[in-house]
Amino acid sequence: MKAIVARDYGPLENLEYADWPEPEAKGSTVVIRAEAIGVNFPDGLLVQGLYQMKPPTPFVPGMEVAGTVTAVGEDVKGIKVGDRVASLSSMGSYAQIVGAPEATVMKLPDGIGSADACALLCGYGTSHYALKQRAQLKAGEMLCVLGAAGLTGTAAVQIGKAMGARVIGVASSPEKQAIAKRAGADVVLGYENLKDALKEATGGKGVDVGYDPVGGESFDALSRSMGWGGRLLVIGFASGTIPKFPVNLALVKGFSVVGVFWGDFTRREPTVYADNMKELIGWYLAGKVKPVIEGEYPLADAPSVLKRVLGRGSAGKIILKP
Question: Which domain holds residue 252?
Fold first, then answer.
């Protein structure tokens, strides 16, 4: 079979579309013929050696896959050949055929396409965990989402609305601001003079929950726009700059800075994660959330697609097709 292979850590251009051994159906392994493969920001960091995890090389990157089960190991209990499933793992999904432990595989109900299923895993899963468990967002609160046209950003906007919040979406261009608006943002802003704009949008009260996957100067503006008792969620640093936080702000403004490490959450609290996914799927089937799929590209195009994702040139979810 073909897969995207990282022979060693290095530039995205070094990734190879190459032959790779097919997974075997042994033990608890579920073998999935891929129909859609999700592209995520951490995938690009992983292959460059810039992510928290550094697997031995060579390896196949990729966290998300959805498709049809073609074989199962002798220890698999709840999945059978022919099931439509989605799987989330730390790597291995940029391939035509993927082997995944049964514990990482969930059956897909009718009505969910493979591309949307991939988006609901990492992107929507991160935002859901951030807003529900970490921020404990309440109906009627003011939520500000930076990067509101990206995958996790549009997810945060939609999930925030599903939880009853009033949502401010922040995006860099009129085109991206339109995406945030279509996702459900009540107010849409750009990054210019963001602190003053947020003060006006909140009537001077400040933001109850700030959602920041961007970092850099945007974090600085948002941290100065938090309201009393607020929760500022640290999701990631798509800008490439990890900000330095003046802790006196948290003291005098009475808000909390809360880290969101979704991948570790799924491993530490698998039961809670499973409950979260059930709720997300229920919202999807009820029409409360709907992933924005920007485009679908051949698996061989993974290096150029990842380059665009890391350069913040994408909006919504990008899918690779084997």
Answer: 126-263
